[in-house]
Every structure is written in structure tokens, then in C-alpha cells.
Write a structure and sequence with these properties.
This protein has one domain. By secondary structure, it is an alpha+beta fold. A three-stranded antiparallel β-sheet has the order 2-1-3, with no helix packed on it. Strand 1 and strand 2 form a beta hairpin. The structure holds zinc ion. Zinc ion binds next to loops.
Length: 89
């Protein structure tokens, strides 16, 4: 449980925990690709799950960073807005 950075290039997943003050964003330490910040709803596919990663790439490239996902109680998950530009939906 917690927030994550994912690198879509080399499929690296970095767990960030839940400390909202200390999220680190930026480049992948492995390949310098820009990492994508996702919340705890994100379930990384297995590294060899090509279809799973294609879906993740598709969703993220369409602006879906797993933040507009309701939790078990039907409440929208609150999400820091300072990583990317807030989106009107
Ligand atoms: Zn990478």
C-alpha cells in the first residue's frame, strides 16, 4: 500500500510509501526515462506481462494516472495535485 513511481520504459516500480511530504518524482535511476507517479490503486503487472504493461501505457498516455479511482467506499481518492497539472474532468 502506498504511492508509486513507475518507469514505463524499463518497467521499474518504485514504492514511495504514504509520506505525502516527501514524494520524489523525476527520472528513472535505471534508464533516465521520466517516471510516472501513480497512487496505491495501481497494481503493476508482472515484468513479462506485455499486455498488462501495454494497458498501463495506454491509460497513462491518455492522462489516466490512477488518481481518479474511487475506493471501496465509493469515495474518490484524494490525490496531490502538484505533480502534474490538475485536470478538469
Ligand atoms: Zn527506467
Amino acid at each position: 500500500m502506498g504511492y508509486k513511481n513507475v518507469c514505463l520504459n524499463c518497467k521499474r516500480v518504485e514504492n514511495l510509501g504514504t509520506d505525502h511530504e516527501n514524494f520524489r518524482t523525476g527520472k528513472c535511476p535505471e534508464c533516465s526515462h521520466e517516471m510516472t507517479f501513480v497512487n496505491h490503486k495501481f497494481r503493476p503487472p508482472k515484468k513479462n506481462d506485455k499486455k498488462g504493461w501495454e494497458l498501463v501505457k495506454f491509460l497513462i498516455s491518455n492522462g489516466f494516472n490512477f488518481q481518479h479511482v474511487s475506493d471501496e467506499n465509493g469515495m474518490y481518492v484524494t490525490y496531490p495535485q502538484n505533480i502534474e497539472e490538475p485536470r478538469n474532468s
